[in-house]
Structures are given as structure tokens and as C-alpha cells.
Amino acid sequence: MKKWDKRLKPTQASNSKSSPLPHDYLKLVEQTLTQALEKGLTEIKKIHPISEFSADGALFGDEVIIAITLSHGPNSVAATTVYASADYNPNAELPGLEATLSSCVESAGSVFDFYLDVENPEKVAQIANQSLGALEEAPFEWTKSTLPEGVQAWVKIDKTNPKLEEAADDWLAKNDPNYKERDKKDDDDSEDFLSDRLDAIKKAKSGSGGDSGPIRH
Question: Is the pLDDT of residue 95 over 90?
């Protein structure tokens, strides 16, 4: 299971366990950002012809984390990842998981929008650079998002490349005989955790007449 750098310190409620966000939802996030930042992507493709967004995310008992990565093809180690985090209480009807996720996505997108500025080639060059130090005015630690509306979110940025991490995991899966067994146990724990969280949401909504799921597309 992916190890996340939580903004909130682990508590008894969260116990550091998390469940990955649904694949379909993450694909929708990728498509939305690609469309919204199309002009900026066109600019950075002048430097890195293969540039695309990928999304990941996790649900904890007290926090939601979204990670959006701008990578530049399988032959490039250069990448930029923006993380967005927001408090989340599965037992509270409001603001709800959908609104919390939306705020995280918008907050992460606003960071990319700042650097993928078609009117500012310097900003585009900064995010295209492989060095983290090239980024100016960047939130290197958890920083409150400046979005005026929505659930309060925090953002931070680094130059990690999750695709390289995935390649390392693939290598371990093929070469470490105990890796699959450990990975399966983590997946089972994750599924149990998500099931508990969804049950809590349903119980919280049972008196309000709501019949929609926590994530709608």
C-alpha cells in the first residue's frame, strides 16, 4: 500500500490506515485538470513534448489527501507533484466527502495554474525544471490554500515521480517472494477500513433521507 505523508498526526481514529480513492474518480480528476489547464499544458509541451496529469488519493479516518502529478513520459525522471489535504469527518453530514474532495482538487489545480501561466514563460520554465529549488513562491510545506470558497484545504509541492515508485514496486513484486503476501494483507486492511468508513457515512445520513453515495460522478 502507498505510504502517505499525512498532514494531520495519526490519531486513534485514523490509526494511519487509509483506503485509496476509486480509480474512476481519479481518472475523472485527470481529465478535468487536462481540460482546465489545456493552454498551460501546451506551453510546457514545448519543453517536454510528453506531459500529462495523473491523480492519486487516499481516505483516512480524519483526512482526505489528493496527489496530482505532472510527469513527462517514461524516459524522463522530471515530475512535479502537488498534494492537497482537508480535514474529514465521516460521521458528519456536512461538508461531505464530495465537497471535501472537490476542494482538494481545486486547490491542487490552482497551484498548477499558477505555474502553467501562458503569459509568464518564467513560471512554465520553473515547473519544467527538474530541480525543486527552481520553483519560486512554492508551498514546500503544508500551506493553507488561498481559494476563497469551499472546504479549507492545504497544499504542498515536491518533485517526486510516482511512476518511478510504481516501477520500484513492480520490481519488488517480481523479485521479493514475500512482497505479494505483505501487499495483499495491506489491501485487505484497506478494504476493511473503507467499508467501515462508508458504513459510518450511511448511518450518519440515515436520518436525513439522503440516498446518494459519498462519491458521485
Answer: yes
Q: What is the pLDDT of residues 9-35, one digit of tens each?
A: 876 555 568 899 999 999 999 999 999
pLDDT value of residue 18: 87
Closest C-alpha among 7, 18, 43, 5 to residue 142 = 7
- Given pLDDT bands bounded at 50, 70 and 90, which one contains residue 77? confident
Number of CB atoms found within 10 A of residue 55's CB: 22
- pTM of the complete model beyond 0.70: yes
The answer to whether 108 and 155 have CB atoms below 8 angstroms apart is yes
What's the grid cell of residue 190?
Answer: 484497506
